[in-house]
Amino acid sequence: MNRRSGSFESDYRPERVNAPSGGDEEFQAEVSRFNDLQDKLALAGIRSELADLEATVANLPAAIQTLRDRGYVFKSYLAKKSETLAAQWADLRPRLEAALQTQQPA
């Protein structure tokens, strides 16, 4: 599992290229561009967003309860909707993980 609560973090970590210090700016920019492309190929941004979404879904019932404990009154169906959302996420998550695995570089 990853640092948040799910398993969207990949074991694949592209080897970062470090430009030699004192190199020219154009070379430094190309090395940076290369590293950015590697991150995109590893789907790092998508994995991060999905991990954030998973944490948000997991924390939603507690957030609703915290608001209620503070005296906020709102429709009771919100708790049920958060349960439904969690169930839908539990169904969708394995499919997303499989899709990400098929898109990941070897």
Structure, explained:
With 106 residues, the chain is mainly α. It has one domain (25-103). The protein is 66% helix and 0% strand. It is built from three helices and no strands. The chain has helices at residues 25-41, 44-69, 77-103. The longest helix has 27 residues, at 77-103. It is elongated. Mean pLDDT is 79; it is low at 1-5.
Short key terms for the protein model shown above:
elongated; 3 helices; mainly alpha; 106 residues; disordered N terminus
| Unreliable stretches | 1-5
Approximately how much helix is present in the residues?
A: 55-70%
For the biggest sheet, the summary is:
none
Structural class, by secondary structure, is: mainly alpha
Write the H/E string, N to C. Answer: HHH
Instruction: Please report the distance between the alpha carbons of the first and last residues.
Output: 21 Å
Any idea what the shape is? elongated
Number of domains: 1
SS elements, strand count: 0
What is the structure about, briefly put?
By secondary structure, this protein is an all-alpha fold.
Q: What is the fold's blueprint, element by element?
A:
Blueprint: H1 25-41, H2 44-69, H3 77-103
